[in-house]
């Protein structure tokens, strides 16, 4: 880590060894507009625990959170793994904002990768969102684009292993979706078994290439306490970029996992879950 991060007394580095792959988990206990009950939410000291809302990034779907969901539910947290449209800020942020509006009670909002840009915009002005947690994620400021941030530091290798596919938009114009190719494991998920990557690659959700060009309209991290995980072997968003964004945003806690690829929530669900719990305990 850079010297400015290591000097921060609230930040810690976690030495992680091995790779744990998320097993199958099913979202349970969700009803109607995601109203929580005491039995579903469990207890957090003398108060009900917050709902944890998880937002995935590109080349993924909500199943990338399965291992974390399983662990959070085992600890009594109501969990919602939202489906991010991956069409860019103008579509994604209002969609996730509407999901947040459907949740009664406090929320810990968690995002991976491009999902970080989405929650940075979607959580602005949401009084029920008590904490933001960024897992190897973008943390843009107002006016910044993801394209600018991914190029700010060297080391990203994911775009060369992305496959562009044209698609027809409702207005008749043509857009471009980006899919992670079968050769993308080293750049995206080097620390999970090859068989697990093949499933991830086959079930991925593409993202619109224009997602890199939309400027951020709000920066929720300026008013909502935030936490972050740096993936030390990330070849999608460079670790240096993650450290820089987290430092700029003055995160309350940053955990670095030196052995982790970009998909830390899959390969290191225990560490990811502990960071989410830290945020929940500190703010809810």
What would you say this structure looks like, in words?
With 284 residues, the protein is an alpha/beta fold. The chain has a single domain, classed as Rossmann fold. The protein has helices at residues 3-6, 38-41, 66-74, 89-101, 115-122, 146-150, 185-188, 194-203, 239-248, 264-267, 269-283; strands at residues 12-13, 43-44, 47-48, 51-55, 79-82, 107-113, 129-137, 162-168, 174-180, 207-208, 226-231, 253-257. The strands form three sheets. It has a seven-stranded parallel beta sheet with strand order 1-12-11-7-6-4-5, with helices on both faces. It starts with a helix and ends with a helix. Mean pLDDT is 88; it is low at 1-46.
Please provide the count of β strands.
Answer: 12
Shape: globular
Query: What summary fits the major beta sheet?
Result: 7 strands, parallel
Low-confidence stretches: 1-46
What share of the residues does DSSP label as strand, in percent?
15-25%
For the biggest β-sheet, the strand order reads 1-12-11-7-6-4-5
- Label the CATH architecture: 3-Layer(aba) Sandwich
Could you name the CATH topology? Answer: Rossmann fold
Supply the number of structural domains.
1
Number of helices: 11
> Which H/E pattern describes the elements?
HEHEEEHEHEHEHEEHHEEHEHH
- The residue fraction in helices comes out at 25-40%
CATH 4th-level superfamily? Alpha/Beta hydrolase fold, catalytic domain
Gyration radius (Cα, Å) is 18 Å
Mean pLDDT: 88
Topology:
Elements: H1 3-6, E1 12-13, H2 38-41, E2 43-44, E3 47-48, E4 51-55, H3 66-74, E5 79-82, H4 89-101, E6 107-113, H5 115-122, E7 129-137, H6 146-150, E8 162-168, E9 174-180, H7 185-188, H8 194-203, E10 207-208, E11 226-231, H9 239-248, E12 253-257, H10 264-267, H11 269-283
Parallel strand pairs: 1-12, 4-5, 4-6, 6-7, 7-11, 11-12
Antiparallel strand pairs: 2-3, 8-9, 9-10
Helix pairs in contact: 3-11, 4-5
């Amino acid at each position: 880590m850079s010297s400015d991060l290591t000097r921060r007394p609230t930040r810690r580095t976690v030495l992680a060894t091995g790779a744990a792959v998320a097993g199958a988990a099913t979202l349970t206990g969700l009803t109607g507009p995601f109203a929580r009950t005491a039995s579903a939410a469990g207890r957090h000291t003398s108060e009900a625990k917050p709902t944890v809302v998880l937002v995935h990034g590109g080349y993924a779907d909500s199943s990338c959170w399965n291992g974390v969901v399983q662990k959070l539910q085992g600890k009594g947290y109501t969990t919602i793994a939202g489906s991010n449209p991956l069409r860019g800020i103008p579509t994604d942020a209002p969609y996730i904002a509407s999901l947040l509006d459907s949740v009664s009670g406090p929320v810990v909002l968690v995002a991976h990768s491009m999902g970080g840009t989405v929650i940075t915009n979607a959580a602005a002005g949401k009084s029920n969102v008590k904490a933001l947690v960024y897992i190897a994620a973008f943390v843009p400021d107002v006016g910044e684009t993801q394209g600018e941030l991914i190029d700010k530091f060297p080391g990203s290798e994911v775009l060369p292993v992305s496959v562009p596919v044209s698609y027809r938009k409702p207005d008749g114009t043509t857009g471009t979706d980006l899919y992670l190719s079968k050769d993308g494991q080293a750049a995206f998920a080097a620390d999970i078994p090859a068989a697990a990557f093949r499933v991830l690659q086959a079930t991925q959700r593409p993202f619109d290439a224009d997602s890199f060009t939309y400027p951020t309209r709000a920066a929720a991290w300026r008013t909502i306490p935030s936490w972050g995980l740096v993936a030390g072997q990330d070849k999608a968003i460079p670790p240096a970029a993650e450290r820089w964004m987290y430092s700029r945003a003055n995160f309350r806690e940053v955990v670095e996992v030196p052995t982790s690829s970009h998909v830390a929530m899959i390969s290191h669900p225990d560490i990811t879950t502990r960071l989410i719990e830290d945020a929940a305990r500190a703010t809810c």
